[in-house]
Amino acid sequence: MIDVKALVKTFKDGPIETRVLRGIDFSARDGEFVAVMGRSGAGKSTLLYQMSLLDEPTSGEIRINGKEAHLLSEHEKMLFRLTKFGYVFQDYALLPELTALENVALPFLMQGAPRAAAQEKAAVALARVGLTGRLGNLPSQLSGGEQQRVSVSRAIAHKPDILFADEPTANLDRESSARVINIFNELHLAGQTIIMVTHEDEYARITDRIVTLDDGRVISDVPVR
Amino acid sequence: MFSPVNIRVGFYLALRQLRRTSVWTTSLIVFVMLLTFLNLVVVTGILVGIVEGISNQYRQMETGDLYVTALDTKDYIENSQQVLAFVRALPETKRVTARSSTGGRIEANYLTRDLNEKPNETAATVTGIDSVAENAFSGLSGEIGEGQYLAPGDYDAVLLGSQFVDRYSFGEMPGLTPLTNVYPGTKIRLTVNGATREMTVKGIIVSKANSPLALKVFMPGGQLRQLLGRTDQNVSEIAVRLAPGADRAALRDLLVRSGIAENAKVRTFEDSIPNGIAEVTGTFAAIGNAISSIGLVVAAITIFIVIFINAITRRKFIGILKGIGISGAAIELSYMFQSFFYAFMGAGAGFAILYGFLVPYISAHPIALPISNAVLVAPLSSTVFRILILVVTTIVAGYLPARMIVRKNTLDSILGRN
Q1: ipTM for the whole complex
Q2: Is pLDDT above 90 for B149?
């Protein structure tokens, strides 16, 4: 499904170059749930951003379903993000002026769905994460856990090929974190491919594989079950 | 960029942003747009209105809607009474006045000056009128600033235009020396056609410098004809005021076709306004447009700054929108819709104020300026054109900063990196 080869990412700040990814090889199969771990600054999030086409690698290859994703135009990448990927960010990344329902419905509108159909699908997705009663709430009227569930709902509503999650429980209390991880687990059991960056061993253990990075390199890649 | 999906999503985002923006912020931006619109329309409108005021004075006080005057080769209109009868019989005619005009000289202070002293005299256009008909036509009695208007039966009485009286004069002009110590009741000498007669100043017309009244001496028409040695009833000009909505050009053509043009020049008000008025109007309009365009630039910069600050503070969310697959074009369109909203609301409010209050109010109460009583000239077509200019400029001013932010790297926007 996703295959990364010799991925390098270098940040430049004037004359100073910082190589964050130093030739990463990585792959994930359809339906696989992979945890990416490592200490702070190891390059976990950077790897996730390159794979999810939010950023451009300095060099290397990213193949998604056999397609050379790193060579796509901006417009094609946008379409990929809209239709093939789902994102869950650490800080929820909801749009503050849109209600929970509108946040989730927005990608459907961009796909050309009529408004009523988009809202219907969004309502189903929100029900799936237990937020039926919060459809009309703005993000500011929701707790952190609820906001993250809206974010998960937005990420999965359009049934993406791959769900990318960047430390989805980092800002949540234990109860909310457990709830989000349970949702991920259910999605995985339903066949969803998930690549999740996390610091939490406990949550990494529910995945199929744990890939550990250090200093921009993969230092271990071990199955969990 | 303008695909239906982009437009729909852009509108959807714009609407929600506007709904949840502070009412005060929105009101302030709309207010700036309102002022810009009024600046665009009113500044030019008043400048053009100054010239319009001058033109209106000519129309009101001199030419009316149709102006029949003697041919250049004649001092009077042949068969004037027949012409008068014809125009009075037209159903569109509301008022008519007939005047006899000739060149002459007036002199003051001749009783008190030394023999060696230069006479206090000046050239003047002397106009003989029927005081009742003239007043009904132009409201001339309302222009009398000192003394009284001519009454039927007055003899040896004149009204002096303000340029002939030093205390009202706007200064000397070639061939015109204002008279000193002239008040109602003062005797002056009037010379026309070689005949000199002592007259009494009955009233002084106090008018704007550019008024057609400023350089005229009015006297009873019958007496002027006597001084000219004329025994006929012919006059040198006939001014006709038409009923509102009457087609001036069509009536002019009717008079021409009727044969009147063989003995007189037949012109509409527009044909007869002094040369250069149109050029002055154009000049004032250009000055107004120049001033207004500065206002337009200020408004564009305001919107640019507002949208830029909005887009900068929302950069993270713009990044998120791009991250979840919303096209850059849809995001840019959302800011263009917001700019359109601000411009439309501002221009809409301005339009309502302009035509609901300013134009009718200033028409009823012209702005008294030394040069004329200025009105606000705001033709609908020109106003609509200015609204379009404002809206387009504002949309562009909103689009540019949005594009600048949308073009930034998606991840940098999400993470707030520079």
Answers
A1: 0.89
A2: yes
